[in-house]
Design goal:
Layout (H helix, E strand, L loop, with lengths): L6 H11 L10 H7 L3 H24 L9 H23 L1 H7 L10 H9 L6 H31 L1 E2 L3 H4 L9 E2 L8 H4 L1 H39 L4 H4 L2
Antiparallel strand pairs: 1-2
Helix pairs in contact: 1-7, 3-4, 3-7, 4-5, 4-6, 7-10
């Protein structure tokens, strides 16, 4: 029987607490390879999101059919089929983006996060819960790709979402911005070493935010204990 589902926790885990990149440190190969621009990151993120959602849905649908002995090969086969379809769709409808992302689209099959969610969550939960988990994990992964791509593109080229109308379609043209006019660029940020540097700073930023949230939560807990014991709100508990 499926465990009770807390959609709020699923959302927090996918977007922040258990983010594929910033918490699990998975899928770093495509992350560092394709995020020279925010546009590439968005395209790769949307492709991965589609695979996460569809694989979660299909695995959940078949969870009572697939026997435990063959579950891992079966999950890999399901993911490979979905990735093949996504690859063909991108090639047909956004061919320019498909050429830019190249081999990294088929390599989505090897993304440990997708197989991990299929094994740890989708195979044990309802279709709705598994699909929602895939959606949140996919959005979190996409945001990480876009964030890293945006940092590298802005500091490396002075632009944001360059060529979005060409790679993603004319409907994405509104995203294109020039942040620093007449900027000569900082080549290191666009090259692979720049990906490691930018990722390191983003991971450090997340650690700082998590540490401050933890300290704030501990202070709120102490304030609640003080109020419970004395029946009088402390200045901190009042928000002063």
């Amino acid at each position: 029987m499926a465990d009770p589902v807390d959609y709020g926790t699923i959302t927090k885990n996918g977007l922040w607490d258990n983010n594929i990149v910033f918490s699990q440190l998975l899928a770093l190969c495509p992350l560092l390879a394709v995020t020279g621009t925010a546009t590439n990151g968005l395209g790769m993120g949307l492709a991965s999101l589609a695979v996460l959602v569809l694989s979660g849905l299909v695995v959940s649908l078949l969870r009572n059919v697939i026997t435990p002995e063959i579950r891992i090969p079966a999950f890999v086969l399901i993911i490979a089929c979905i990735v093949t379809v996504v690859d063909m769709v991108l090639n047909a409808w956004v061919h320019d983006l498909h050429k830019v992302l190249g081999l990294f689209i088929p390599l989505i099959v090897t993304n440990c996060a997708i197989l991990g969610r299929a094994e740890a969550f989708a195979s044990r939960q309802s279709v709705v819960a598994a699909t929602f988990d895939g959606l949140m994990m996919g959005i979190g992964f996409t945001l990480a790709l876009v964030a890293l791509g945006a940092v590298r593109e802005v500091l490396g080229s002075g632009t944001l979402f360059a060529n979005a109308s060409i790679l993603l379609g004319s409907g994405f043209g509104f995203l294109e911005m020039v942040i620093f006019p007449d900027y000569t660029g900082f080549l290191l940020l666009i090259l692979p070493p720049g990906g490691f540097i930018a990722l390191g700073f983003l991971l450090a930023l997340k650690s700082v935010i998590d540490a401050r949230k933890k300290v704030g939560g501990q202070e709120n807990a102490r304030d609640r204990k003080t109020f419970t014991a004395s029946g009088v709100l402390t200045p901190a508990a009042k928000g002063e």
